[in-house]
């Protein structure tokens, strides 16, 4: 495995004497640079073929003595984030061979690396100050839209999947997933979405999935309730924007949605309730339907569904029923004004293809 280092990084590690070979494969070659973020040293590593990469932050002198280990761990973790099969990750590292440090491979690769470093600098507000490997920023880096030729743009996370498929076959993803049926109470009927999602998501990500699935605009507060078999609320899961925690039942535990994971609650015959917009009072029931051991996607996917959601700020169930009455009668005196209002709310009917396009790039919306 070739790690092409900029001059700044070369000065931090052992002297580089290895010359780059003419037969090296880009897929097994990476470029790395040293920058400072918040006065601490960070190493950005980017694959030469597809610009897939990761970020190591807060490195000290002792860390540079084990840079081999940190870079290999970074490659493994970034590939695991994409749900690449363990055996393919190990095969890739084996095929890459011994890690060799060289100078960078020319201006083209340095320019790509500099672009990645610029992007990382924009996200210093989401740095994880307690860990070297930066998961959130690495995800942002790999979902960036990069220009691959004069007229095409791609995401590095998709490019590396294609590269791995070309070398190791089509089945490179293995993801444990849950099938969830979500029912939105709209009064006279329910809108339903059946969603398959990786098992390792937290409730913060589940919130965003539900917003996309029902075409909400995420402009109101929300929370989750975990209801036990006795019908008692045993846990309230809230967003970081909630400032009225003290109003909740003192006997009910309250946790942040970023710290609670759905895998800990869906299999114990408990009911999960999702409430959105406390004024309009939209209630969703989440039902666990089963586990999928070998799911072939690494992102949430809406399998099926029916029923349109409601517009934002329509006035809850009574307002929605009035909205349907007016919109169902083109001769109604308020029809035109209601149609204009619905457009201003960016209201649309349920479109499963549109939902799945957004779910595929969920990380861009977090």
UniProtKB/TrEMBL annotation:
DUF6933 domain mapped to chain residues: 2-158
Domain (Plasmid pRiA4b Orf3-like): residue spans on this chain: 179-357
Pfam families in the cross-refs: DUF6933 (PF22016), PRiA4_ORF3 (PF07929)
Name this protein carries in UniProt: Plasmid pRiA4b ORF-3-like protein
């Amino acid at each position: 495995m070739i790690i092409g280092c900029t001059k700044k990084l070369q000065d931090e590690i052992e002297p580089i004497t290895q010359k780059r070979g003419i037969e090296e494969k880009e897929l097994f070659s990476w470029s790395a640079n040293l920058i400072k973020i918040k006065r601490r040293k960070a190493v950005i590593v980017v694959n030469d073929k597809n610009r897939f990469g990761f970020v190591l932050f807060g490195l000290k002198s002792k860390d540079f003595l084990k840079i081999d280990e940190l870079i290999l761990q970074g490659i493994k973790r970034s590939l695991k984030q994409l749900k690449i099969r363990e055996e393919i990750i190990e095969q890739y590292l084996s095929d890459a061979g011994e890690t060799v440090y060289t100078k960078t491979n020319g201006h083209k690769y340095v320019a790509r690396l500099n672009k990645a470093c610029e992007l990382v600098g924009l996200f210093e507000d989401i740095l994880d100050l307690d860990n070297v490997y930066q998961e959130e920023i690495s995800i942002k880096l790999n979902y960036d839209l990069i220009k691959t030729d004069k007229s095409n743009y791609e995401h590095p996370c998709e490019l590396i999947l294609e590269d791995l498929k070309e070398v190791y076959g089509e089945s490179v993803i293995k993801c444990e997933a849950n099938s969830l049926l979500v029912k939105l109470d709209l009064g006279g009927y329910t809108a339903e979405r059946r969603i398959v999602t990786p098992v390792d998501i937290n409730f913060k990500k589940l919130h965003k999935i539900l917003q996309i699935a029902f075409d909400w605009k995420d402009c109101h507060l929300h929370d989750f309730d975990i209801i036990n078999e006795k019908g008692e609320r045993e846990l309230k899961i809230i967003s970081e924007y909630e400032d009225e925690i003290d109003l909740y039942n003192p006997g009910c535990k309250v946790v942040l949605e970023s710290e609670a994971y759905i895998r800990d609650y869906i299999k114990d015959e408990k009911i999960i309730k999702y409430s959105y917009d406390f004024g309009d009072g939209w209630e969703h029931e989440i039902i666990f339907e089963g586990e999928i051991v070998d799911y072939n996607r690494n992102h949430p996917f809406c399998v099926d569904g029916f029923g349109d959601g409601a517009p934002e700020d329509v006035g809850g169930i009574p307002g929605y029923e009035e909205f349907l009455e007016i919109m169902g009668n083109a001769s109604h005196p308020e029809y035109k004004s209601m149609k204009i209002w619905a457009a201003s709310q960016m209201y649309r009917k349920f479109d499963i293809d549109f939902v799945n396009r957004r779910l595929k790039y969920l990380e861009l919306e977090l």
